[in-house]
Amino acid sequence: MVSISFLFTFGLGALFLPLWVYIAGKIGKKTVYILGLLIYGLSFAALYWYTTDNLMTLLPLFISFAIGFSGVSLSIFSLVPDTVEYGEWKMGVRNEGLQYGLYTFFLKLATSLGAIMVGIGLDIYGYVANVDQTAGSLMGIRVLTSFIPAAIALIGAVILLFYPITEKMHAQMVKDIAERKSAAAR
Question: pLDDT tens digits for 70-122?
Fold first, then answer.
């Protein structure tokens, strides 16, 4: 049922995007990103205590995942262009290709490292494919699918507290860039 739950969660997440856009307009993209990570992380942490196969019982958790995932997804794709403008504002050069290339590279690297970490974690907890799992391996699976992603989301939220580009700073950057272009055109 994992495929169905992912489809439901991501589909529902898409429906929450307009709400997050509205909220971002009120409190800022950075704050939405942090809130999305916190909701997403808390959803993962809550997964530890769910021990049912009944999808209806998991529905509130799927909704929580969808809300958090939606906020995170919206924010990452709205912060990357801000960093492009920051580079132009600071150095006078737009480098979208480099920034998006690096973003894509690090996304793929993180995905690969995450898969390796899961494999190592399963090995540490004694997981053996196609057999009944021991209590230790079942506990390991629960930890790997709950507390570890929750901790990573929390670390991400803390790191974002230091992200320097605010809405006010972004508006000033855009204004300064436009003034430079206007002065250069004269």
Answer: 999 999 888 889 999 999 999 999 999 999 999 999 999 999 999 999 999 99
Q: Where do the domains of the chain lie, and which CATH numbers do they carry?
A: 2-185 (1.20.1250.20)
pTM of the model: 0.88
Residue 172 CB neighbours (<10 A):
12
Q: Is the dihedral of CA 21, 45, 4, 126 positive or negative?
A: positive
